[in-house]
Design goal:
three-stranded antiparallel beta sheet, disordered N terminus, globular, alpha/beta, five-stranded parallel beta sheet, 17 helices
Length: 362
């Protein structure tokens, strides 16, 4: 295992870290994901996985630790975001398998490439990162339902190769994308064989450990540092990218106080530096026009205070069945959460971002 220069110092029993928002991390720089990686390894012993999570939640870091944990198995890991057609995807898969110039139709090319991989490494794990974006790009090309055909073909390939394992990874909107395509699959559910797992924010203890390790690596200190970092973890609610980013900004300013952290978070939300609005923009893909308008109203209300399903239904003109369907979709797509009977945003950070987003787009 190779360590970058800036994680080579051990302090009080742990490796200190530099703030690296958005940068590739080594397995040793990734904090708080051992339990999830162990769960994924256990899943992969039996079936393939659909791995999702909100943007910048740390999916790439989880995959990095997963690849490390799967050694000595052969792992093929590729980012497929750039592919806009099944042909491009099949050609790339051929290259990963060591085959050039597959002069056959894309379904046959995928089969030949997977045959080669399976022959060389029967228990290989194939990871396709940013699978959502590829599906979206292919579907937007509007070429004979190619996105649906690709989903169905990959489903057949997985069923035909019980020793190979696949990880399809993407943002939480992967569920929206696949559900939309699934409605056009007349006979089969193209993801029924996958174990669906979600990358959540770090637990508070792990998030605080990460913050302390970065603050030490960046030589950030304050008399009330524990209190400051607890406030940071509370504000960003355990999201590792934001911890890296805020502490990086603190290091540049040479100041780490509660006021500084609050100011940086406000700046990030106001400028949408963290691209939180992108999640809200996908609402138009989740619903038709009428239901989309109702979903926006629901989000407006719960951004201010939690509400029950009954309270929401009483405020909307749609039938109760439609309202419940909208709520279920918002919960399933990780925008809302339901605790006992109260519906609220899954994170206060996103509620703040929604209020800002609506103030700019209303």
């Amino acid at each position: 295992m190779f360590l970058s220069y800036d994680v080579s110092i051990v302090y009080e029993g742990f490796v200190i870290l530099k703030a690296k928002p958005g940068a590739a991390l080594t397995p040793m720089e990734i904090v708080g994901r051992d339990g999830l990686v162990a769960l994924l390894c256990e899943c992969l012993a039996h079936r393939s996985v659909l791995l999702s999570g909100e943007r910048r939640i740390g999916k790439t870091s989880v995959l990095t630790k997963l690849v490390d944990a799967l050694e000595p198995r052969r792992v093929i890991r590729e980012n497929v975001q750039a592919f806009a057609s099944p042909v491009q995807f099949a050609e790339a898969l051929g290259r990963w398998a060591g085959i050039e110039d597959l002069e056959v139709e894309w379904p046959s090319a995928i089969t030949l490439a997977l045959d080669t991989i399976e022959d060389e490494a029967p228990n290989a794990v194939i990871i396709w990162d940013e699978f959502t974006w590829m599906l979206k790009r292919i579907d937007e090309a509007h070429v004979q339902d190619e996105a649906v055909e690709l989903l169905l073909h990959l489903h057949r390939e997985r069923l035909d190769r019980p020793s190979l394992r696949f990880v399809l990874s993407g943002s939480i909107s992967i569920h929206t994308a696949i559900r939309r395509l699934r409605t056009r699959c007349t006979a089969k559910d193209p993801i029924s064989d996958l174990s669906e797992e979600i990358v959540r924010p770090l637990e508070a203890a792990s998030a605080l450990e990460l913050a302390h390790r970065i603050s030490k690596g960046e030589s950030l200190d304050a008399s009330n540092l524990d209190e400051v970092l607890e406030q940071l973890v509370h504000l960003v609610q355990g999201r590792p990218y934001y911890i890296h980013d805020v502490l990086s900004a603190c290091a540049r300013r040479g100041d780490v106080t509660i006021a500084t952290i609050d100011e940086i978070v406000d700046e990030r939300i106001s400028a949408d530096t963290w691209d939180l609005a992108d999640d809200f923009g996908r609402i138009q893909d989740m619903f038709d026009e009428s239901e989309g308008a109702a979903a926006v109203e629901i989000l407006d209300w719960v951004a201010e205070a939690p509400m029950t399903r009954r309270e929401i239904a009483s405020e909307l003109e749609h039938s109760d069945g439609v309202v419940q369907s909208i709520i279920e979709t918002l919960v399933r797509d990780e925008l809302l959460t339901e605790v006992e009977t109260d519906l609220s945003f899954r994170s206060g950070l996103r509620a703040r971002a929604w209020r800002h987003y609506r103030s700019r787009n209303s």
